[in-house]
Amino acid sequence: MNNCVFHTPRETHVKGNDNSALQPPPSPPVVGIPRGLLYFHYQPLWATFLSQLGVTVRVSQPTERAHLETAQSLTRSDLCLPVKVFLGHVDRLKDQVDWLLVPRMISVSPDAFMCPKVLGLTDMVRNVFPKLPRLLDPKVNVKPPKPQGFAEACSWVGRHFTSSHAQLGKAWLAAQEAQAEFGQRLLTHPLDEAIRPWDGDFSQSRGQAGRKPVYRVAVIGRPYVIFDSVLSHGLLDLLKRHLVDFMTPERVPMEAKEKQSRRLPKKVYWQLGKDLVSAALFYMERPEMDGIINVSSFGCGQDSFTSALVEHYVTKYSNKPILNLVLDEHTADTGLNTRVEAFVDMMEQRRRNGGQGVNVQRDEHAEPSGTMHTPKEPKSPKMHLTIPHMGPLHLGFERVLKNLGVQITMPPRPNKEALMLGTRYSPECACLPFKLNLGNMIQALNQGATDIMVPAGFGPCRYGYYSVIQEQILRDLGYQFRMGRTDDPDSLRDMLATVKMIAGLKSKWDSYKVFFFILHRLALVDWALQRAHSLRPRELKRRTTDRALRRSLKIIEQTHRFRDLWQAKRRVRREFDAVAIDPDRPVVRVGVVGEIFMVLENYANMNVEERLGEMGVEVHRGLWLSDWLNDRFRFKPFRRNQFRRALRQAAPYLRDPSGGESVKSVGKSVHFARKGFDGIVHLMPFTCMPELVAQTILTRMASNFNIPVLTLIFDEHTSPGAVQTRLEAFVDLIKRRH
Ligand code: SF4
What we know:
The chain is an alpha/beta fold.
């Protein structure tokens, strides 16, 4: 079956009497559109716009099971199946088209991002396929400072095919109309029927079950999963066969979704995630709905949070039955059928028990149709603070706040108990830092802390939403506490206000002094760690560097004011100068990059840097806590902004940040490769979305620079033995290459 083709005859212009008029018009350029991910959202717009310009649009054929294998083989990284299938569609299209359209979709509304993998999609396509037709990668990002929407994106694309502003304008108008019509059709038709006018002859009608549906459910899931019969394992047909009619999030009017979204403690800052959660809140209150089916892809970072929200609100604020389905390439159709059958039986049971159309039970604390989040706070107003660990961060503030009279209980350093507690109560596919943070919070609350303070943010990775899901879990466990989050940790004003509030300081100047003292303590900690990295592979006696480091960190911790820091630095230097080393010992140099928590937190990365040091490796980190802070608060004026530097270095591979530390992972790796390093170790938590983008791109970078890259992926099942073995094999390899 060939790919689906759209085209409108191009107007031919005859100028004067040259012979060219007699030539058959050149065949119109063919633009390929892969049938995956945001194709299901914006195909009408792109297909109409391009066809209006006389361009032939070729869409890849619907996914088939046979394609899954190819999709899996295209990249070694642990990308989610929808992204792999998208790459499979690119693979099937790339040799049949002149151009390939893979827009850089960053944001379509100012308060939300696309998924980090969608942010990095164009760069992944460029790096996975060495040979590609010309790539059309218009950017759509309506967020400040330089918002650019579909109009600018279409105009940029259109100028590749025509210079006529009139034609561009006409095509854009037609595209807008088509998209608006699609939006209207979505309110009354399932997506695969609504998209039909722009999807040629490939969306097969599901056909009638012959008998009238008996039940109606809301299927909450991403359209590129639900309406892809392979990714969804034919779920919608299965429901039809069980006489179950379904409604999906696209059928809920945007205003209704916005209204629901405002009821959450914090808006979901992912465009599609927001749609899913708000649609679930909408449908759970609809009496005609018999149940909710929540569909997620295994390994989907977003779903680990949005599914937790959907399950929490549906089970707590409605009595609709909910079925959670996590699908991947290993899902067995029989198993899926059994689960749907059981769910239908349950709905039947409820009906028999008169459950049909029961009004939603509201949380007695919730205001009618208002917010659904009135936390039970501790009785005592007195603050008893705790902050979950992240590497040496506590060395910066703990002693300083205690000296200012703040009652602060730090949880134990991340350990087995924190991991066990965090894993037990977290969503399965939540990332490891989330689980360790949650475990730390439980440990500290059990020690009597009542106020949790965490930095948050607005994405695009999950970190900014950690505290919302963690608070939800802790409240469901019955803890009474106050959760404080700084939603703009990049703003100095926010941080100073937080320090002033916590330490009960009188003036902004006082909080300024305290905050910058903390920052400089952390910079000194990083300086000490750097010294340790260069000494450890050369030390004559094992572990002498570690002991010097421990003493040094103690010295830094005991500083009380700025001038103590100079003296502390001299003492730390003496500590390290006392370590006996063999300066001429040959060492290999390895760069360590990755997700910030995994790089900074030794317990999480199982002391990767110490292990490498003991194997004779001089470790250079691609990101430091003090640099992360300096990029935001500029307390080291002569140190360049490391993020911007990494962005320039990453540009040949990654043009737009996809959240987290993806830019530094790629940019610093390029920097290390250019500096002739022997290898790179990339650390990431399982399912970390930005680092999966980086991992996919690093494969290309590694082969271009001929530098070995070892990606270590951590979750609660990772064993220190496995990490040690992989590091040993890696170091053997680079020493043999050296
Ligand atoms: S991680 Fe989730 S949201 Fe992102 S592309 Fe994959 S399935 Fe979609």
